[in-house]
Amino acid sequence: MCAIEYYTYDDYVHWEGKWELIDGIAYAMAPSPMITHQALAMQVAFELERSIENCDKCLVVAEEDWKISDDTVLKPDVSLICDEPNEAYITKTPEIVVEIISKSSSKRDEKYKFKIYESEKVPYYILVYPDDLKAKIYKLKDGKFDKEGDFFDQVYKFEGLSCSVDINFSKVFKKFKKK
């Protein structure tokens, strides 16, 4: 008989390296994402930051802990948070969560985190695919994520958020397109 160890946030805060905690199960994150992964996350963050430059309520953060519960702590690649009262970690549901898909994280991002973000009522979930230079945007409608579309070079304007927000995917992917 094999026993799976159950962890909580109190355990998590003492671990070295990058981890996520989903329903008490620890998941090690890759030691260092590929350069394209990090650069795309930065490009999305720059676009979001540009968009909210006149908004005093919201912040764009990268790889920040989101403590969902005592046994679930995620570290989205990029998040748009608004009116967050805590300095140590994210406590309120972000308005936008972005995950850059890599081979090692695709199942976690597309299935497990998808379900968690949906159940936590994240208004928008964006999956960015570096190999395809594509972003899939999901919008929460009636408690379920509904795919808004695949975006390659379009501008997407988000609705119903604390601040006016848009992302120009032409700018996000510009440096990565083969000439």
TrEMBL record:
Keywords from the named record: Endonuclease, Hydrolase, Nuclease
Keyword Hydrolase applies: yes
Pfam families: Uma2 (PF05685)
Gene Ontology molecular function: endonuclease activity
Domain Putative restriction endonuclease: 10-144
Cytoplasm as UniProt keyword: no
Name used for this protein in its record: Putative restriction endonuclease
Organism expressing this protein natively: Hydrogenimonas thermophila
Lineage: Bacteria, Pseudomonadati, Campylobacterota, Epsilonproteobacteria, Campylobacterales
